[in-house]
Amino acid sequence: MGKLGTCAVAVAVLVGCAQSHGEPLPPDPSGNAGPDAGPTNPGNPGNPGNPGNPPDAGNPPDAGQPPDGGTPDAGPKFSGPGPWPMTNVTYGAAEGIQESSVVGVSTDETQNLWVATRSALYVMRPGEKKFTRFDANTGSPDATNGKGEAASYVGNRLHLASNPVTYCDSDFGNPDNLQPPPDRACPILGAANPEGISEIVGGGPNEVFVGYVGTHTWDDKDGTWADPDRHSGKLDRVRLQSNGSIEVVRFDMVSNDNPMYWHNKTVERMIYDHFIHPHELYVGTDHGTDKFTPDKWHAPVGWFASGPNNDQWMSDHLHAQVCYHAVCVDDSNQRLGDWRGLAIDSNGDLWQAGRWAAGKIHYVADNNIWWRTPRPNTDGTKGPNAIDPAMGDGYFGGCNGNRPVFCPPQEGDYVNLSAVTVTKDPQTGQDKVWFSSGILSSSATDINYGVAAYLAHPGPGEQMWTYYDPVNDIGLGESNVRDLVALPDGRLAVAGPTTGVVVWDPTKKARGLRISGLPSDQIYRLELDMMVDPPALHVATAGGAATIRQFPK
Q: How many CB atoms neighbour CB 61 within 10 A?
């Protein structure tokens, strides 16, 4: 029965949660309280007398930068300056980008440069001067069979709104014998909603992943198998072919625990591990975080969510949680989602940061195990929690208990985490985890809390939590932080939604230095390419794309 007993109640009283990570979406009229399909982590209920110490995060030996700039022997090797200019470069209409606002910039393991706007994907291969454009009309339409379903899972068009995949879920039946049986029409369509692309990330050689905005109705069917929009949004795996065309495979997301639940629609953030656990993809969505192993994808036998199909290459979904103004006792009144922050630490574990909570998901390779919490031991008994620390549940206000990174008035209030990144603490050598807060909606209760640094084991004179003001301490032009990434020298690149990017050294009592020459100071995304040396900071802006190789000193 899985989670059906508790989740069936939750669906009736809660609604989903979604925000775009690019240009802000309209505010969610429902209040963004999410029903749950998958396991949550109970976290640490905290201690009212303890001033906010979250559970122990361990003591990793280093800050997550790949040793010697490379990967384990079995993977590709990365080093040297790469094929792109060592100077700072901007890209726009002159290079073939037809739309001005860029929502993502990334490189794959072949160093193809990928750029995305809301309505198109672009690629420039090493040695080229112009981008090639792909949209929903580039290539042939997806083939269908006599029932209107997709005849193949492999096509060559992006799955934007005008090019939906056709599914037939009614063949799945009614395994829980629900009465009346769930309404699962055939065929049913799956594609981005009209807002289009939300995020991209480069993958293996000649590979990029394209995330889309999904559609929500905010009613009790939203995110269930009775939801007509359950296949909306999601992501495409795109591979560049030798003739310059693309191969497109759509990755749908459905709970491994119970196919009743299709909560993850909008892709908020993606991160791809090139170094520690090579070729693992993590996807932060409007509800939870998924792990994909794209190299294991294969065309399913029968319905893709049955048998040894998606369990082999997808793990959906996992998240920390809080509950509204109370410690969680079950799935009722949960607040979770909007996972705009993802970062891989030195152990290859995943930090996630959302609108209400944060935590560290410990790595396991098996996609049929990764989503479970507690994780099962080999003898079938309950093992450790998948998320530890899980920050937010067991918070008592006033920074007492298990704080959700920042210290809102009560558990379940917004903290609006917009990014997370990891540096090396110069004193103890352990991972230092940085979080930023930045609002996207217009709710009166939304607050920009600034930037926080977390140390699991503070050294002499250090604190577990340290907080910084984006304007007065960091030198950003506004208190809203859209994104931040760690540079290998320990500095942070910090972006505001309207005031550009500054490079800041946390070890110095000085404000950061602004990066000049960007196409626009309206920033949507930062990404650091560590496959080249010096690294390349990719910046997506409202006026085009930029790659920064020379940072202000």
A: 10
Residues 216, 203: Cα–Cα separation, whole Å = 28
Q: How far apart are CA 18 and CA 25, in angstroms?
A: 9
Residue type, 409: P
Sign (positive/negative) of CA torsion 515, 518, 522, 523?
Answer: negative
Q: How far apart are CA 57 and CA 486, in angstroms?
A: 19
Under 8 Å between Cβ of 135 and 112: no
Q: Answer whether 261's CB lies under 8 Å from 37's CB.
A: yes
Q: How far is CA 56 from CA 171, 369, 481, in A?
A: 46, 23, 27
* Alpha-carbon distance values, 118 to 123, 134, 191, 232, 312 (Å): 15, 12, 13, 15, 31
- State yes or no: cis peptide before 552, omega within 30 of 0: no
Say which residues have a Cβ less than 8 Å from residue 263's Cβ, sequence separation at least 6: 16, 34, 35, 36, 37, 38, 223, 255, 285, 286, 287, 288, 317
Give every CB contact of residue 209 below 8 A, 6+ residues apart in sequence.
200, 201, 202, 203, 235, 236, 237, 238, 251, 270, 272, 281, 294
Range list of β-strands (E), 182-245: 188-190, 197-202, 207-212, 235-240
d(CA 215, CA 265): 7
Half-sphere CA count of 189, side-chain side, radius 13 A: 12
Q: Given the DSSP bridges, would you call strands 431-437 and 417-424 parallel, antiparallel or unpaired?
A: antiparallel
Answer yes or no: is pLDDT of 309 > 90.
no
Query: What is the structure's pLDDT at 36?
Result: 54
Question: How far does Cα 328 stand from its chain's mean position?
Answer: 24
| pLDDT above 60 (res 29) | no
How many CB atoms within 10 Å of residue 214? 30
pLDDT tens track for 37-59: 445 444 433 333 333 333 333 33
pLDDT band at 495 (very low <50, low <70, confident <90, very high): very high
DSSP track, 316-334: EEEB--EETTB--SSSTTE
* Coil, helix or strand at residue 132: strand
Strands in 341-344's sheet, in edge-to-edge order, are 341-344, 350-353, 358-361, 387-391
Whether the CB-CB separation of 428 and 460 falls below 8 Å is answered with no
Cβ-Cβ contacts under 8 Å for 190 (sequence gap 6 or more): 159, 164, 165, 166, 167, 231, 232, 234, 250, 252
Report how far residue 24's alpha carbon sits from residue 37's, in angstroms, rounded to the nearest whole number.
26
